[in-house]
Design goal:
Helix content is about 15%, strand content about 15%. By secondary structure, it is α+β, with helices and mostly antiparallel strands.
């Protein structure tokens, strides 16, 4: 099961992007409700390794479950 970036908690720091071994984390368009950049995880590509959780400095920005209702994924 893929991990999820909670769009409205993410602060756009992007430590997760460089750490991801399968490049499944992408920038979201625009800003979130906090006014910061944000990222999203491609659930189809994520291998559930948990590295993003380990490197993210923002408490609660990534959850270890596939929760599409928490992550705004561009279409």
């Amino acid at each position: 099961m893929a991990h999820t970036i909670v769009t409205n908690i993410c602060e756009g720091i992007a430590d997760c992007v460089g750490a991801c071994p399968v490049a499944c984390i992408h920038p979201g368009p625009g800003k979130n409700v906090k006014g910061t950049d944000w990222f999203w995880i491609d659930f189809d590509t994520c291998i559930d390794c948990g590295i993003c959780l380990q490197v993210c400095p923002v408490e609660g920005a990534i959850v270890p479950d596939e929760r599409p209702e928490l992550q705004q994924t561009p279409s």
